[in-house]
Structure formats: C-alpha cells, structure tokens
Automatic annotation (TrEMBL):
InterPro entries: DNA-binding_RecF, DNA-binding_RecF_CS, P-loop_NTPase, RecF/RecN/SMC_N, RecF_2. It comes from Luteibacter rhizovicinus DSM 16549. This is DNA replication and repair protein RecF. The keyword Nucleotide-binding applies. PANTHER family: DNA REPLICATION AND REPAIR PROTEIN RECF. PROSITE patterns: RECF_1, RECF_2. The RecF protein is involved in DNA metabolism; it is required for DNA replication and normal SOS inducibility. RecF binds preferentially to single-stranded, linear DNA. It also seems to bind ATP.
C-alpha cells in the first residue's frame, strides 16, 4: 500500500497541507516543533484510528480550530485505489471511505496499513500490556478476516458481564451465565488466533533481531492468554465470579493478555537497556510489516520518526538497507536528512511552521 496524496487540516500545527509523497523514501526535514511528526501522525491516524502519541484524540485539534480532517488517496499493488478520510465534525469523529461515511472506524482502518517507529516505541517492550495487545490485534485485523467479528463479540459480552458485576449483590446465574458462555467462546477463538499469529510472526522478528541485537543471542516470545492456561476460560470465569463481583469487573480473559520477550543472554526484559528496548521494538515492528507483506502481498507504509536521534549511524544504515531493497513507501523525519540517506534516492519535503513544501 502507498499514499498517492495526503491532505491535512486542523491537525496540531498543520492546516491546509497537501502533499504527494513518492513511492519510495520520503524525508521530512525542518526545525523542532515545525510539524514533521504530525505528518506521520496523519498517516497513522488513518491506519489505527488513534495517534501514536499520548493523549486523547481531542488534543490533536489545532489550537482554536473547530474541525480536524485527514484525507488520503491510497493505492494497493493490485491496482485498487481508495479515498480515505477521518475527521472531527460537530464534536464527533467520522470515518469515510470513497466519499461515504464508513459503517465503523474499522472499515477505514482495514483499507490503510501503516507501522511507525518513533520515540515512544520502546513502550512495546517496556510499557503496559495494552500496548502489546494492540500490536497483536492490529496485525491480526489486517490478515485474519474473522478476527474483528470475534473481537466485537467478545467486547459486547465483556461489557454486559461487567454491567452485571457492577450492579452489586449476587449475580443471578440465569443472567450472567449466557454472557460468560459468549465471553468464553469468543475469548478462546481470539486466543487461538493470537497464538497462530505469533507463530507466524516470530520467524520474521527473529530474522531482524539477529541483526540488531546479535550479542543477546536467540530471541523468544511467550504469549500469556490472560488466565491460567491449564484451565478453560468458561470454567475460570465461573470460578472467579465471586471475586470479580467484589472488584466490579472481569479480571480474566484475552483483554488481560500479554506477551513477554526474552533473549538467551537477557532472559528478563529488565536486563535490557533503553537502547536495546528500542532496537527490540524496531525488530518487532519490521517483523510485523514483513509478515503483513507475506500474507497480503504488499508492504505497509513504514514511518520512522526522528530516525537520526533514535538510532546510531550503524543501525540507521541497517534500517535503510532493509527498506531500500523492498517495494515499500517510507516516511522519515529529522531536523536534517539523516546521514544514512544522504547518498540514497529520496524525495525531500521541508516543514516549517506547519507548512510542508516539496524540495526539488
């Protein structure tokens, strides 16, 4: 997938921005605070429905602006062209595909695939478990068509069970048991899909990890489903019902899942330095992009925010070498062209005070 055009209005400091990125490597240069990262953020919004930066969607609006919109034309390697849009209108968020309001945000996200390595990417390794669940589920959403249906089924049952738990007093079995059965069925299906996805993903990550962190030895990833693996989910929900009632929410299930990473010479995440966490996250993101390409037949757009500050020269050159040999569109930001790209065929955009201009 590639962006043919991108139009941005009311996003942080960007307003009235229109650009036509090249099919290869695009570099956005300019001073700090100029809006470079917000260009990547616009592309990411269409692919994830949220920013990769912390904060609610409301903080994305340019100060004083009442509306925000990101529109793009994207094309797939099979020749399909889609017009995608995400905007804030009258206090609510609206997604559009080919000019029509999308039935859900997922209908938009399904048409756009972007992965991003940025200063907060180390949270994939060192942060809260929800980061790692989002990583798995975004990948699954794009390669496993039945996933979204099971995920929605699970979320609906989880919401209903939690409502009953918050009502206080003993939960009436005839009311809660049907939701527990639904929750367990969808939860087991989600867990199976996540395990299968990890099994396919791991070789791709290992291929990159051996280059970025060879000194740490063999890499492994272990999935934890969110409940005791020796019991089935329905039995666990029944057994935990009294405890969940006291807490007012469901404490077991795929919504509590996580995965851990380990190396032969660094068996615990705490053994990794911040720099090693970043490189580990980079290998995971590139591995996910590579698996996406294997299954879908095309690479997602790869965004690299502030590349020169996040990676040393050796690892910059390694990333560039990985991407130059593939049919992938890349967005890179920096205060200047990263040294690893100076001799490479790139398209450069200058960004200053929210204005994006192509440089010849």
């Amino acid at each position: 997938m590639k962006f043919d055009s991108l139009r941005i209005a009311g996003l942080r400091c960007l307003d009235g921005v229109t650009l036509s990125p090249a099919a290869g490597i695009n570099v956005f240069v300019g001073p700090n605070g100029a809006g470079k990262t917000s260009v990547l953020e616009a592309a990411y919004l269409l692919s994830h429905g949220r920013s990769f930066r912390a904060g609610s969607r409301d903080v994305l609006l340019k100060r004083g602006a009442a509306t925000l919109s990101v529109f793009a034309e994207v094309h797939s390697d099979d020749g399909r062209i889609r017009r995608l849009g995400l905007g804030r209108e009258s206090g609510r968020w609206v997604a559009r595909v080919d000019g029509d309001a999308a039935a859900s945000l997922g209908a938009l996200v399904q048409e756009c695939a972007v992965v991003c390595f940025e200063p907060g990417s180390h949270d994939l390794i060192a942060g809260a478990s929800d980061e790692r669940r989002r990583f798995l589920d975004w990948g699954l959403f794009h390669v496993e068509h039945s996933f979204v249906g099971q995920w929605r089924r699970y979320q609906r049952a989880l919401k209903q069970r939690n409502v009953l738990l918050r009502n206080g007093g003993p939960a009436e079995p005839s009311l809660i048991e049907p939701w527990e059965s639904e929750l367990a069925g969808a939860g087991e299906a989600i867990t199976t899909m996540r395990r299968d996805y990890i099994a396919r993903l791991l070789p791709h990550i290992q291929g990159f990890m051996g280059n970025v962190l060879p000194e740490l030895g063999a890499f492994a990833l272990r999935y934890k489903p969110g409940w005791d693996e020796t019991a089935d989910l329905l039995a666990t929900l029944t057994e935990r019902r009294h405890r969940d009632l006291a807490r007012g929410h469901t404490t077991v299930g795929p919504h509590r899942a996580d995965f851990t990473v380990s190396f032969e010479h660094a068996p615990l995440r705490e053994h990794l330095s911040r720099g090693q966490e970043k490189l580990c996250a980079l290998a995971c993101l590139l591995g996910q992009a590579s698996l996406h390409a294997e299954i879908r037949g095309e690479w997602p757009v790869v965004c690299l925010d502030d590349l020169a500050s996040e990676l040393d020269r050796t690892h910059q050159e390694w990333v560039v070498a990985q991407l130059l040999g593939r049919d992938v569109q890349v967005f890179v930001t920096g205060t200047e062209i990263p040294s690893a790209l100076i001799e490479q065929p790139v398209t450069v955009f200058h960004v200053e005070q929210g204005v994006v201009s192509a440089l010849l």
